[in-house]
Amino acid sequence: MIRFPNAKINLGLRIVSRRPDGYHNLETVFYPIQLQDALELVPTSDPATSLTLSGIVIDGDSRDNLVMKAWRRLSERFDLPPVSIHLHKAIPFGAGLGGGSADAAFLLAMACDYFHLPLSDEELDREAAALGADCPFFLHNKPLLAKGIGDEFEPVALSLKGSRLVLVKPAVAVPTAVAYSLVTPAEPDEPVSVTIARPVAEWRDRLVNDFEKSVFARFPEVGAIKESLYEAGAVYASMSGSGSSVFGLFDREVDLADCYRNCFVWSGMCEV
Predict the structure, then answer these.
(1) Residue 139, CB-side half-sphere exposure with 13 Å CA sphere
(2) pLDDT one-digit tens code per residue, 152-190
(3) pTM for this one?
(4) Which domains does the chain have, with CATH numbers?
(5) Catalytic hit among 8, 89, 169, 226
(6) Is 241 left (phi over 0), alpha (psi -120 to 50) or beta?
(7) What is the structure's pLDDT at 154?
């Protein structure tokens, strides 16, 4: 069995308040894009489940990969036999694209289908949420308004179908904890849920990512990418999550592959 976990971008990201537990309440829209990893699950005669990796190199022990944590949750709950898992990484990590969460969510869904596990959609959502706040989003893969710590989802009426998306990730990493430490929470003048209903042409300077100010100050090359996307004709451009990837939405075909040296660049059509 093989499936293709996809990335997401954030459309707006407001840090609304700090919670007593130290986390932050936020408001954002998660939007799925077609930048994809590849995840394969096959039976094995080996005595234990294994994970092999290819593509973008991931640091650390593969046993700590979120895919293996997802497998262990279901394996221990249902006493599943060993399998061989292979993950080909094409989604950059540390980019605000949710690649690790997508891989984990897809593994849960794959194991559920492969072994015909008696899990309802709600139960699968809970299993995903135990792995990461944004993991359940990837089980639904449609635009959703996220609140709370990014774990409370509401439907949102949004279609970007037909728009061209260009994604650029520079060779810098923005630690999420550092990004949060530099943001002062505040209620926005206009909630993301209201701004997202405006035409895309009105999003600039309205649909705001609160991380941009501090990240751009520390990593000016990230801010420069956003400005260059606007100069190239983007209708809207923003950093995704806490960075460091930046995306632009275009209403026409563009080819910017050679414009960003030493950066990861991906371009594709919006499909929802």
Answers:
(1) 27
(2) 999 999 999 999 999 999 999 888 778 888 888 999 999
(3) 0.95
(4) 2-155 (3.30.230.10), 164-269 (3.30.70.890)
(5) 8
(6) left
(7) 96
The answer to whether residues 235 and 209 touch, using CB atoms and an 8 Å cutoff, is no
Interatomic CA distance for residues 142 and 155, integer angstroms: 9
Which residue in the list 134, 169, 210, 226 is annotated as catalytic?
A: 134
Bridge partners (DSSP) of residue 17 are 25
- Other CB atoms closer than 10 Å to residue 159's CB: what's the count? 10
What does the mean pLDDT of the chain come to? 95
What SS3 string covers 22-70? CCEEEEEEEEEEEEECEEEEEECCCCCCEEEEEECCCCCCHHHCHHHHH
Q: Check: CB of residue 65 under 8 Å from CB of residue 58.
A: yes
Count of alpha carbons within 13 angstroms of residue 44, beta-carbon side: 16
Distance of CA 85 to the CA centre of its chain: 21
Structure-token pair, residue 240: 């995704």
> How long a stretch of residues is the chain?
272
Residues 6+ positions from 182 with CB-CB distance below 8 Å: 214, 215, 218
Pairwise CA distance, residues 259 & 66, whole Å: 33
The first and second tokens of residue 210, run together, are: 């609160």
Mark whether 151 is an active-site residue: no
The answer to whether 46 touches 74, Cβ cutoff 8 Å, is no
Residues 106 and 102: their CA atoms lie apart, in Å, by: 6
Confidence of residue 227 (pLDDT cuts 50, 70, 90): very high
Three-state DSSP class for 181? Answer: helix
Mean pLDDT for 32-56 is 97
